[in-house]
Each structure stands twice: as structure tokens, then as C-alpha cells.
Amino acid sequence: MASGFRIAADIGGTFTDIACLSADGRLLTRKVPSTPEDYATAIIEAINDLGDAEGGVRFDEVLHASTVATNAILEGKGAKTALITTEGFRDVLELRRIRVPRLYEPLYEKPAPLVPRRRRFELAERMDARGDVLKPLDPEAVEALIDKIAALDVDAVAVCFLHSHINPAHEQMVGARLRARLPKTFISLSCEVLPEIREYERTSTTVANAYIGPPVADYLRSLSNRLKAAGQDGRLTMMQSSGGVQLIEQIIAKPATVVESGPAAGVVGAARMGARAGYDNIITFDMGGTTAKAAMIEAGRINATSEYEVGGGISLSAGLTKGGGYALKLPVIDVSEVGAGGGSMVRIDAAGALKVGPQSAGSSPGPLCYDQGGTAATVTDANVTLGYLNQDALAGGTVPIRAAASRAAFETEIAPHLGCDAHEAAFGVHKLANVTMMRAVKAVSTYRGRDPRDFTLFCFGGNGGVHGAMIARELEMTRVVVPPAAGVYSAVGLLFADLEATRARAFLGLLDAETAPRAEALLREMEAEVRTELDQARPELRWSADLRYAGQAFELQIDLPRDGALADALGTVRETFEAEHRRSYGHLLDGAIQIVNLRVLGAVAPRTAGGMALQERSRPAEGTHRPVYFGAEMGLRDTPVLHRGALAETPVQGPMIIEEYEGTTVVPPDATVFRDGYDNIVINFAREARI
What we know:
By secondary structure, this protein is of the alpha+beta class. The chain has 16 helices and 39 strands. The strands form ten sheets. Strands 13, 14, 15, 18, 21, 26, 27, 35, 38 and 39 form a ten-stranded mixed β-sheet that branches. β1 (6-11) and β2 (15-21) form a beta hairpin. α2 packs across α7 (199-229) and α10 (379-386) crosses α12 (422-444). The mean pLDDT is 88.
């Protein structure tokens, strides 16, 4: 029997966040330490706790976002993988692209391929660019190669042949033999994972899909079994990098779609809630304990891309800074991520300079103030020393804080090296962390031809409200919004996510009246596949195409009209492409426009997408104050500490600390703050004339 309850769990490097929407619209939250030895443990315990608190309720749906796929790549803990490719293309993963992210570092070394050369194999087969067979596949050579791979005892095999996006016959033949001969091995075919042009990106994506396939499958099956053992047998779905959820059986078949699972959820929530409250142009800032992420929502629309890199210090899709990670060419929300968070460790380097991160204390042992065995000061310790965070406990008293340990570290280990007092040293750490995180904000705005001053900074994550206002000030942004339940907002975002299915196909041709009917026929074919995958639901459908001027090397994704014949809308499509080209690159070209790929997206809205009321768990005592340091210019201030509910719709002057169960918001002295009609904290800075 349906209960009407849906619950979402988002695993972070430090905390696991839980958000539950009850049948009567109450939003219930939990924030518990992550359990790196077995991430599912924290989820099961929190879900059981919430279920018991609601009288033993069983949830209709469990939605999930996790970094398990990303971590497998970043930590080099994926499956033992082999690659089969066309003769002569064994080293595509090594050659990559000519671009490197560090222009003035001649000794820069790119990340090692996920498949070492000794496990990369060639087959003498060849298709041409039209899909015609130039060299047939030899079945005996295939069987001999499978014998060789079987002897290696690999966990996964990726197959990527030249031009298989046009004619997949050879890949499908090899895939069928692999699946028959190696039934327990994860098989990843590029024609199933990414049937699009670009040999390196297609190979890299297919290999990544194989590399993370076994650990993702093991994790999701284990989680499903443990939920059922706990009496939770509702539908289990997982957030995709594109911002939609999908059933875990489909995720297991194509795990590369969830590499950026966690960051996507918060952006979806920001888009839904931002639009409802009237904030259409948003840059999201999601800061947790390990990383900080940013994304852009323009005119209420989430910016998405089909090209991404994971790893390499900053995970992003901005073309100007590629080359440092592993390419993934799949639909993904355009999120930029840097290794900076509350757990980022502080140190003094050999030259006496202050450094923050990228190493993190994580949830175990955590910052010094957690008193769980941490040995190095962190950004969280700096924020405790500055007075930004509660001096006794976080998360409604569930995470005890030993502020004296934080202060002692800055007084004895950091400040003496910098020639200043503990407050100024801690403020230096806070500012340095902000500078690092500003890279993520610029990657989705400045690097894409947008001015961040035209956007609202929408802050969430456990530390988003602590750092958001200071970052906005540095970027000359005038408005900061901190939504309800900000500290667990990625989990909240899961509750808003649509059930999605996507299809993409290579289609190389000019955007003209002769080509349009063929493109439309392929789009309708993909649309039928999407409808089938969504199991006869009535999805909202969207067509798009990757377009470029003929002769260009990279594309822009542009929406296509579904109403009427595509041939009749070519003028509108061209205008849309040119407007986006001017926004992104600042100029137009005079030439033909070329279609490169076609895409179809189907989305089904969640069953409960209405309003929600956050159920409060704790609030500071009235009249609470504490000393808070805001830098040398504004000094140490006696600052009121209050709850979101104490704010009204009339702006008041900072400084102010707003403490809640899910997180903390810092309002500096030079800002005003109020609570809008949707329970958002809104921080404003005076707008200065632009030069």
C-alpha cells in the first residue's frame, strides 16, 4: 500500500544528507556522518531513523545520489579493464587531445589512462566514414583475442572501433561473443554508450563506463538488497549527471551517466525553487566538506553540456581549460568542481606560504574541532576560530565541537609562521579557500561569456552559507540566496528531479531543407525509443542538436522545435544558434551551419512536486550573541545569532549569524538580509557603479 512518502539520500565526502517529503507536504531532514568503509551504512541508518520517527512508515520511493562512480575514477579504484579497438588505434587514450590545462608547465604529465597499454588490444577490422566495410572482421581472430583477455582475468572490457557510430556491426559482433564467452564480465560497447563522432572522446567515455561498471553495479545491488532487508522495497532510483533520475537497473547498464550524480541534484532543486521565487538567473554554489561546485541557470534553464572532464584538479566542461582529466561525452549539467571544502587541510609550505587543500580530512578523522583524531587544521577549524560556526555543536547538537582545539592550532601552528594573530591567520585561510572556489564560479560564467554580476548566487551545501556572501562580494555580485534546508539541499533537489531518458545519434549534414527531413525522421525514431524506456508514461519531450559553422571543431547544443516540420523552422534554428554563438564567443561567422549530433530528452515529473514546509529541528536561544571576526577592515564584532524564522521581509543590516540544523549562514557587516515569501534568506550588497 502506497504511503505517499518519498525519501532522498545524497552521499558526500563528509556527511550523508537525507530529505524526506511526507504525504502531507512536510520536509524532514537528517545529516549524518558518511561511512567511507561502506557508504550504504549511513543511508540505511538514516532512513530507518526517519521511518521509525514517522511511525514505521515504508517509503514509496528511495532516490539516491552518490559519488561512488566519481571516486572510483579519482581514486583509481575502478575495475580491472581491457580495451579492444581498431588496428592502429591502440594509443588513442594516450594521445588524447593536444590541449593541456597548464600552458606554462612543460613537464606537465597527463593522467595515466584508465586502461594500461598491456591491456589494450587491436583487431584488424575497418569501417570508412560512411560505414562501409573496408576490412572485414575475422571471427577466428576475435575468438583468439577473447582467449587472451580471459587469461588476464579482467572485470570489464570496453570495445571501441573506428566509425562504429555510423555502422556498429563489428562492435556488436565482438560484444555478442564477449558476452557469451565471459558472462560475468562487464562489457561496454561504444555503439551503446556513445554513438557519436570524435574517436578520443568516444573511446574515453566507453572505457570510463567499463572501468566504473562493476563497482557501481556492486554498490547499487548491495544497497537495494539492504533496503529490502530493512523492509524498504519501494522504487529505487538514482540521479544522473543530466539532472534526471533513472531506475537502478538502467544505471547499472550505463553507469557513466552517474559520474556527476551528486552535484546535479542540488542544481535541479535550485532551478525549481529559484524559478518559483522569481530568481531566474542563478549561479549555484554548493560547498560541502570535500569539494565546492558551481553551475549556471540562465532564464530559468539549467545549462547543460555533452562534454565533460572528471579529475585533473578541477572537473568542468569549459573548453579553454580542458586536458587535465578523463573525457566523458554524455549529457551532464554544466557543473564545475574544485577540491576545496570545509575539510580542506591547512598547511605552511617549505617557502612559508599558506596553503589550503586539496587534501581533505573528510568525515574520518575530520577537522580538529570534531575531536575524532584529526591532526591538521582545516577550513572548518578556521571558521570556528572566526566565530562563524557554533562553538559547541553543529547539526542541532549531533556533531559536538571543541572550539579550543581549532583556536590552539591557529595560535601555535599557523599564525606564528605568518606573523599575525590567530584571527587574521584564520581569516586568511577563509579568503584563500574562497579564491580557490571562485575558480568554479568563473568556469561556468566568465569562461562562457557571462558576467557573474548579472546573476544571483544561490548557496547550499553544509558550508555554502558560510562562504557564499564573501565570495559574492569578491565577484561584485549583489544578491545571495540561501534556501531552506540548504545544508542538505542536494538531497532536497532529488525530490524535484524528473524521471528521464535520453537518446543521441551522430548525424553529419548541413542545416538545410534537403537534410531536415532525414534529421526529423531520426529524431522521431529516437523519440519512440525514449517513450518505450519511460514505460508508456507521458513524458515532456525535447529535441536538440549539436550545431557548428562548417569547418569549426566544436559545437553548441541548440533546442529544435517539435511542432510542425523541421524544414519550416530552419530560419528560427539558425537565429537561435547565432544568438548562442555570439553569447559564447562574442562574434558570428558568415557560412553554412552543420548538424553534428541529434538528441532527444524525455522527462516525467515526480508524483509530488508541490510545495513543502521544512520541519524545524533546532534553533538558537533568543538573544544569543558571540564575537565574530570579519577581517582587518571590519574587525571583531559582537554579532547576533538567530534562526531563519527570526528574519522578516524587511531588510536589516548585518552582521548576523543564522544557525539551523542543516547549516549556517554568515551575513557580513556591509550587507543587508531579509527572508522572502518562500522562506529563502536573501543577502544584498549595495550595487556599485561598473567601470
